[in-house]
Amino acid sequence: MANLSNNNKTPMVAIVGRPNVGKSTLFNILSRKSASVTADIPGVTRDRVITHANILNKKILLVDTGGFSPENSDTLSSMVMNQVKVAVQEADIVLCLFDASNSPTSIDEDMVDFLRKSGKNTIFVANKCDKKQSELQIGEYYSLGPEEILPVSATHNIGINDLKEKIIQLLPPLKKCEESPEDEEITQNGNYRFKVLFTGRPNAGKSTLINRIVGYERVIVHSSPGTTRDCIEIPVEVQGREIILVDSAGLRRPRSIKNYLEEVVVLRTIKEIEKVNIAVLLVDFREGIVQQDERLINVVMEKGKGLVVGINKWDLAKRMNLNSYMKNLPFKEIFPFVPVVAISGLNGWNIDKLFSAIFTVRNAMLKRIPTARFNRFISQITLMHPHPRVSGKPVKIYFAAQTGINPPEFSFVTNKPEEISENWKRYLITKIRESFGFEGVPLLLRFKPREQKKTKNRLLIPGNFNKRW
Hints:
- The chain is α/β, with parallel strands linked by helices.
- It has three domains: 2-170, Rossmann fold (3-Layer(aba) Sandwich), CATH 3.40.50; 183-366, P-loop containing nucleotide triphosphate hydrolases (Rossmann fold); 371-449, 2-Layer Sandwich (GMP Synthetase, Chain A, domain 3).
- The protein is built from 13 helices and 16 strands.
- The strands form three sheets. The chain has a seven-stranded mixed sheet, with helices on both faces.
- It starts with a strand and ends with a helix.
- Residues 1-8, 35-46, 177-191, 218-229, 254-265 and 458-469 have low confidence and may be disordered.
């Protein structure tokens, strides 16, 4: 499986700085997105966050990084620093961000020295220059060696245009960016990649699984819950098909959300569900599917997205019987059409089957049933099991057709659209799934009244005038 993050050689610009200097705020304003979570505490961003950005009508890849802190020796900080080093290594330009509201620190000094040794084109930027004393404080940063420092305020959009012009000056001539909301998903063949969100509770193994799929440590894996905070998008090729993997933060139970940052992360993950095509709910087999997972399944279905459930860490199951475990999953009584695959993200066991299930669900999301065939099918099943009479009158289906995909939508023309019972709707959905599949996807049913034929009002004129016209 090959990483495809920059196959098209789009120039890459990485933002580097010590914790809490405003990297994510600058990232969001340059990309005109909210791809990075921001909060007034250090260490919010940990993994690299990458997105396409339009800088003065030119297309680049913009990278947000975790806080530069080489003096900190704990495992998690070391992993964050490794992500920073990879970002600098891959970048064409590095934006070295200082905090103009404070004096330089030893970390700033180490960072400048690190970037000087890297040999990368570096633009030195002093953020938080929204006060005169902050601008004066920039002078202290010149003692670290930069020849030029650009003053900006990412929060108040001050100096951002000057920064954009500087970025374009240092890059080779670029093609004009044709803006498109789907721009990130277009493959080299002109097809569209689809997005797969990996979600679940903290420590279900999402980041470990994604690193196994990609083939290297693309996202930070740590034993402490909540390590991943941003939604990380990673283009990859799997079984000859290009897709975008999205690693999300672990969804805690509502009563376990203790601060504003955790609340933002949860809301971001739920919002991310709206942007993807398929969600993979990852579950630690030792904990099973709990109420929080069932809520998430309901959210995915309500948003009209495809779903696959991955039972992770099966390498620890030892003598447990897989078939018995699958039969005892309570959610299968409500969602029997959702595929479930036992996997091990740690050693890669059954990942090929997981993606086979993902592709099956993707095909189901795009499946179309010919109208004539669907009408014949509906006629047969309504004869077998007609809708109960309403006020002594029969409920008739005059016409039925599939009217949408992604998710599949079916429309029915009937004499009593508002009288269709929920039980009969479930009967229709069950029969549709039995005959046409649609594994792992929600089905939408719409019932409409038959339109009355419209007759034109004509002016009645004596004689044969109306017959002639």
